[in-house]
């Protein structure tokens, strides 16, 4: 088992390999600063300093015959990145992301700046600064759409969506990635994929303008608070319109993304084909990412449970064709995903042809189980490689 040492962030050096992901608490959620099993570079060190990270865990090894600790680039011999293995040799795989992490990070920053510009109270804005922000956002948006639409894997999976956990800007990015993938299946061309991505990123632009006592509340909302929260769609659309950002297609997508096909949604209570396609797509993507994300008051749903929830709402909340397109681009448990079952045992996905109930290999016995044939067993959560390492060590 590879040795791990906790050191002060200011003592971290280029070439060291992180043993655990680094998070910063942001509101009720967490923002990922750096991912586990990645090599520290100059940009990582800058992020540690900018986000005031105090401590980090890194892999270490000892110089043969001396016992001296060797840490990353502080020695000529580079620390190898270890893979967690069980006594049966099962190794959680390295799952390829549909979008490069660097591009996601760049997109998050562009979204943050755009939100800040568009959420400035009143109509007066610094036009020069806003133009620069919008130009950068448009550039990143176009590259993001290209990667999602033409990525090697051509699938979106849970690891794509959780680089930053429960963080509003990344929720917007996740919804955009899911929406673009769905739109591509539905036949949208590149121009409309970009327009859809923009609407998806901005779908909750009005939420921060609702009372923080409501948006930050951890308990159940009262009837009055629910009504006030529902105003975020109107506030968002009106804010964009006042700033002169976008057009009626964008404004309507933001305004109507909580409408339901059976007419029970808000703010207008419209139904069926009265609801714009962009709003229908965003509604599905928004729900999936929301229920699979960490929240202060509940555990996230598994990808399979989230998909079953969405499927159960076809014809009520969601459009049938949109949900079918959504599922075609969604890979719930890619091969190599580490999961925990309802009997608390850990397993690794070996075959995911059945997207809801894949074939897994148990880490404690090496036994291969087809969950489609073992209905008493089910996946309760996706676990990270550090969690696996601690359990099997």
Topology:
Elements: E1 3-8, E2 22-26, E3 29-34, H1 42-50, E4 55-62, E5 69-70, H2 101-118, H3 127-150, E6 156-157, H4 158-161, H5 168-185, H6 190-201, H7 212-215, H8 223-229, H9 232-243, H10 248-255, H11 277-291, H12 303-312, H13 320-328, E7 330-331, E8 338-341, E9 346-351, E10 359-362, E11 368-370, E12 379-382, H14 385-392
Parallel strand pairs: 6-7
Antiparallel strand pairs: 1-4, 2-3, 4-5, 8-9, 8-12, 9-10, 10-11
Describe the structure concisely.
With 393 residues, this protein is α+β, with helices and mostly antiparallel strands.
Describe this structure in words.
40% of the residues lie in helices and 13% in strands. It has 14 helices and 12 strands. A 5-stranded antiparallel β-sheet has the order 11-10-9-8-12, with no helix packed on it. Helix 3 crosses helix 6 and helix 10 crosses helix 11. It is globular, with a radius of gyration of 22 Å. Mean pLDDT is 79; it is low at 62-90 and 389-393.
């Amino acid at each position: 088992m590879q040795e791990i040492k906790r050191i002060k962030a200011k003592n971290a050096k280029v070439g060291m390999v992180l043993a655990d992901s680094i998070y910063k608490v942001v509101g009720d959620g967490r923002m990922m600063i750096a991912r586990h099993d990645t090599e520290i570079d100059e940009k990582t060190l800058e992020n540690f300093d900018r986000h005031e990270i105090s401590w980090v865990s890194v892999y270490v090894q000892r110089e043969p015959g001396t016992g001296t600790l060797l840490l990353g680039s502080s020695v000529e011999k580079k620390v190898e990145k270890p893979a967690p293995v069980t006594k049966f040799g099962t190794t959680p795989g390295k799952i390829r992301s549909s979008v490069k992490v660097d591009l996601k990070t760049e997109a998050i920053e562009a979204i943050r700046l755009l939100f800040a510009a568009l959420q400035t109270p009143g109509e007066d804005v610094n036009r020069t600064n806003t133009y620069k922000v919008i130009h950068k956002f448009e550039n990143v948006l176009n590259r993001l759409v290209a990667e999602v639409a033409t990525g090697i894997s051509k699938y979106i999976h849970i690891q794509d969506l959780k680089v930053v956990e429960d963080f509003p800007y990344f929720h917007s990015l996740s919804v955009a990635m899911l929406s673009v993938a769905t739109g591509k299946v539905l036949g949208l061309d590149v121009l409309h994929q970009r327009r859809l991505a923009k609407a998806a990123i901005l779908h909750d632009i009005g939420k921060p303008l609702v009372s923080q006592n409501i948006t930050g509340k951890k308990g159940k909302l009262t009837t009055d608070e629910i009504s006030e929260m529902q105003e975020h769609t109107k506030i968002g659309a009106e804010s964009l319109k006042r700033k002169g950002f976008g057009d009626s297609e964008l404004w309507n997508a933001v305004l109507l993304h909580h409408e339901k096909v059976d007419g029970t949604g808000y703010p207008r209570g419209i139904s069926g084909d009265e609801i714009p396609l962009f709003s229908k797509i965003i509604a599905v993507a928004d729900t999936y990412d929301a229920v699979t994300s960490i929240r202060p008051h509940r555990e996230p749903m598994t990808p399979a449970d989230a998909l079953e929830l969405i499927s159960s709402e076809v014809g009520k909340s969601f459009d049938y064709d949109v949900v079918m397109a959504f599922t075609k681009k969604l890979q719930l448990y890619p091969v190599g995903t580490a999961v925990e079952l309802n009997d608390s045992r850990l397993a690794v996905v070996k075959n995911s042809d059945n997207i809801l109930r894949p074939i897994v290999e148990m880490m404690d016995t090496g036994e291969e189980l087809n969950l489609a044939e073992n209905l008493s067993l089910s996946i309760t959560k996706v676990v990270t490689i550090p969690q696996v390492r601690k359990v099997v060590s």
